[in-house]
From TrEMBL:
<keyword id="KW-0472">Membrane</keyword>
<dbReference type="GO" id="GO:1902600">
    <property type="term" value="P:proton transmembrane transport"/>
</dbReference>
<keyword id="KW-0406">Ion transport</keyword>
<dbReference type="InterPro" id="IPR006153">
    <property type="entry name" value="Cation/H_exchanger_TM"/>
</dbReference>
<feature type="transmembrane region" description="Helical">
    <location>
        <begin position="204"/>
        <end position="223"/>
    </location>
</feature>
<feature type="transmembrane region" description="Helical">
    <location>
        <begin position="13"/>
        <end position="33"/>
    </location>
</feature>
<keyword id="KW-0050">Antiport</keyword>
<keyword id="KW-1133">Transmembrane helix</keyword>
<protein>
    <recommendedName>
        <fullName>Cation/H+ exchanger transmembrane domain-containing protein</fullName>
    </recommendedName>
</protein>
<keyword id="KW-0813">Transport</keyword>
<feature type="transmembrane region" description="Helical">
    <location>
        <begin position="174"/>
        <end position="192"/>
    </location>
</feature>
<keyword id="KW-1003">Cell membrane</keyword>
<feature type="transmembrane region" description="Helical">
    <location>
        <begin position="99"/>
        <end position="122"/>
    </location>
</feature>
<keyword id="KW-0812">Transmembrane</keyword>
<dbReference type="GO" id="GO:0015297">
    <property type="term" value="F:antiporter activity"/>
</dbReference>
<dbReference type="InterPro" id="IPR038770">
    <property type="entry name" value="Na+/solute_symporter_sf"/>
</dbReference>
<feature type="transmembrane region" description="Helical">
    <location>
        <begin position="321"/>
        <end position="341"/>
    </location>
</feature>
Amino acid sequence: MEAELFTIDEYELWLLLAGAIALLAAIVPIVIVKRHITPPIIYIITGICMYLLNVNYQFISLKHSTEIEKITEFVVIVSLTNAGLKIKKPFEWRTWKYAVRLLVITMPVTIVAAAFAGWWIAGLAPAAALLFGAVMSPTDPVLASEFQTTAPGEEDKYKTKLTLTAEAGANDGLAFPFTYLAITAATLGTNYEEWAGTWFINHFLIKTAIGLAGGLLCGWALYKLVFSVSSADTISKISRGILSLALTLVPYGATELVGGYGFIAVFVAACVFSNYEDKEEHMESLHDFNEELENIFVAFIFIVSGMYMASNYEILLNPKIMLLALVMIFIIRPVAGWVSLAGTKLSAFQKFVVSFYGIRGIGSIYYLAYAFNNADFQNKQTLLNHVVALIFFSVLIHGFSARYIQKKIQKLDTDT
């Protein structure tokens, strides 16, 4: 029997591609660390090149909304753990004094303004426009990593980075009530007076409170189990990778089971861990593992995004799509951010960084897929095109300017 050489098995081909993506995720962040470019840009370019080489898998499409939801969900909760572990003194007002303004002022203003822009520019139906506002409201904790505060064990020096990290960690969970608002509008109609009270009590107050309580309880219980019950010799033998996954999955799963917002719980649980400064060396190793895991999935998602943009390049040539994306990036978020920071002691440069770098990304894709899987929205394809295009422009505009702004931050933004 002759040996079969150079036969192509699809499964083995995907294994090869998965390995190549993992290699890219390991190498790219190191190689470009001092370049004026960020990893997602490289991944998008890679995806475009793969499409041109006829390697194209249409993963980002309406028929794959369930798979998109699950993959992006995992990436976001991993990144929320990272964000929480980075925040030193997470339960002090000093940490939150600027981020709170972004959460209670910038976020609602962004939702309303984005919804109006989606209706006026893109012609979205009311419920679809509201969904657009909701999915565009959170600052992405994955893409905002360029402007996140220092890693565990290192001193915080920059107000803007601490503010953006705290905002990105909190508002990814707080976008859920507004996504439910859009889902309810699509399901029950836009007679808001008939169901707005029920939505506010159940989906805003109760589920948010359960998320906070679940995060505090799970974070405290996991910490006590690992660091208080275990002996010093046992702790050194515990796998940081397994512990990191436990810190991510236990709060999320437990809180979701009892009806709360798991995104909030994951971030709060990680904050509980970071609050114990005497275990900084352990927090750093937990963060490092999660960051490596996050990098692999980010590489995959943006390579596929590059394929999607290359195969649907006419999206970027659509004047309405381009206009809405640029309005969101250059007007709505910056203005909403600047207004919320009025009267603070931040300098004009610090206000600009915090306001402008509210980057949109994987969290927006997750919320969009979640909403599509839970309600029948009009303008689904239009919504998808606008969200993907906006993320594409955000990655490019914020990504190419990030390194330059980083240098400015080091000179002008010390946390004194």
